[in-house]
Amino acid sequence: MTVDLPAPAVAAGAATQVCVRHGQPATRQKKVIFRSYTPKWAYLLILIGVLPFAIVAAALQKRVKAPSWPFCQDCGRLRTRRFLIGVGLLALAIVGAVAASVLLPANDSTGGPIVLVFVLMVIAGLGVASTAAYGPIASGYVSNDGNTVHIRRAHERFAEQAAAIRAGAPQPYQPYPPTAPQQYAPYPHSAAPVPTHQQPEQPYRDR
Ligand SMILES: [Zn+2]
């Protein structure tokens, strides 16, 4: 599910006690910068040139800096896994390229496609490694008006605590699910004397 949080609250340090993805208690808090997506129309500017596009995209980008965003141990493991896959792809591409340059004759016709494969592996490796950053792990993005941080793939425990942020309430840790029995407030005391209750006569049932 996607959970929406007010951007000012996130920037002010409002955060949950559990991580987004797993809903587990946070073992570390990290600074995360959430960004907005470039609006689709801006890509038309690439037709004019990459530089105008880059300038407009940078000018339009909304950023929300969360000073201490929660991550759990599983988030850390996910980070490590993505990083290792990315680095592994890069290493494979380099080793493969070196091996191909040694083994293949210089004017071999398969050289072009092989280079393309290695270039794609490098791009894929960098792409995977970049998702190991804390921002992608938190999987949030800012709305184009900059007022809202949308959190994708939110765990229901995160969603519950996020609702409290939306309500502007302080963030006590709420165990989930609430198991404490409901306490009823005592009847409000009133100065007026309580009228004596007339018990209707109970019909006595003698077997
Ligand atoms: Zn987690």
Report what the structure shows.
Helix 3 (73-103) packs antiparallel against helix 4. The model has no long low-confidence stretch (mean pLDDT 84). The chain is α+β, with helices and mostly antiparallel strands and 207 residues long. It has one domain (3-166). The protein has helices at 7-11, 50-60, 73-103, 111-130, 134-138, 156-166, and strands at 3-6, 28-35, 63-71, 140-142, 148-151. The chain has a three-stranded antiparallel beta sheet. Bound molecules: zinc ion (ZN).
Keywords:
207 residues, alpha+beta, 3-stranded antiparallel beta sheet, 6 helices, 40% helix, elongated, binds zinc ion
What would you say about this model in short?
This protein is of the alpha+beta class.
Output the structural class.
Answer: alpha+beta
**What does the average pLDDT come to?**
84
How many strands, which pairing sense, and closed or not: the largest β-sheet? 3 strands, antiparallel
DSSP E strands, number: 5
Distance between the first and last residues' Cα:
61 Å
Oligomeric status: single chain
Strand percentage lies at 5-15%
